[in-house]
Amino acid sequence: MKIKTILSLVAIIAFAIGCTTNPFTGKKTIALVPNSQILPMSYQQYDEFLSTNKVITGTVDSKRIKDIGQKISVAAERYLNANGYSGYLKDYAWDYNLVQDDAINAWCMPGGKIVFYTGILPIAKNDAGIAAIMGHEVAHALANHGQQRMSASQVQALGAVAGNVALANNAENQEMFNQYYGVGSNVLGMLPFSRSHESEADNIGLTLMAIAGYEPLAAADLWRRMKEASGGSSTSEFLSTHPSSDTRISNITAWADDARAEGRKFGVTTFKKE
Ligand SMILES: [Zn+2]
Prior knowledge:
Blueprint: H1 3-17, E1 19-21, E2 28-30, H2 35-51, E3 55-56, H3 60-82, E4 95-99, E5 106-109, E6 113-117, H4 121-124, H5 127-142, H6 145-148, H7 152-158, H8 171-181, H9 195-211, H10 217-232, H11 237-241, H12 246-265
Parallel strand pairs: 4-6
Antiparallel strand pairs: 1-2, 3-4, 5-6
Helix pairs in contact: 1-7, 3-5, 5-9, 5-10, 9-12, 10-12
Bound molecules: zinc ion (ZN).
Zinc ion (ZN) binds next to helix 5 and helix 9.
């Protein structure tokens, strides 16, 4: 198919589904594939992942992931309600699980389906570090970055959904899905998030962690530890899709005051550093 045809198809699909303003960034984003199609697939993939991996329950760490996850999701909902977007997350079905796996990884699928791998805990180091990772991953989901990672031809391939054809849960679609959302287990199949998406997720993530009562500068410390870890581990999925850099760390440091100010609007008086 010619590029022109693909582009016009994309335009038609985008027009049919429409633009929405992202409540966190204020940017217009195009929902290329609607939530009504993405979320059922996301939930199915999540259940499948949990049933084929070792989910840890009833430990101090698994409880920490659930507690902090809940705080971040409450922060997201409070922020949205306060900014005139109540109901924005009505289709979300939040879930936070810790999985036994040495890989340095964590992700959030569309609809608030979160997984932390045990391998990322030493780098997270403390509750504030977990909140920083959680805030960042939830931010990717809230800003629909997964959908925006699709290329024109991939959108075209999935474009059938605009004609109300259900997104079939076949192997090919699953593979594409995992690539967009960065949740697969194959490092080679991973697509890195763009620098602008990383920056956006950092910014939104800081706001979320501050509203949840955590010190935003803890995120800068976290990314410093990530940077150190990237020296030794060449197979880290998280680091290959979320490269750490001095620019990222200095941006986070510069945004910390604003994030704290946002947290104070929601009654936070002290920000937990650990
Ligand atoms: Zn990221």
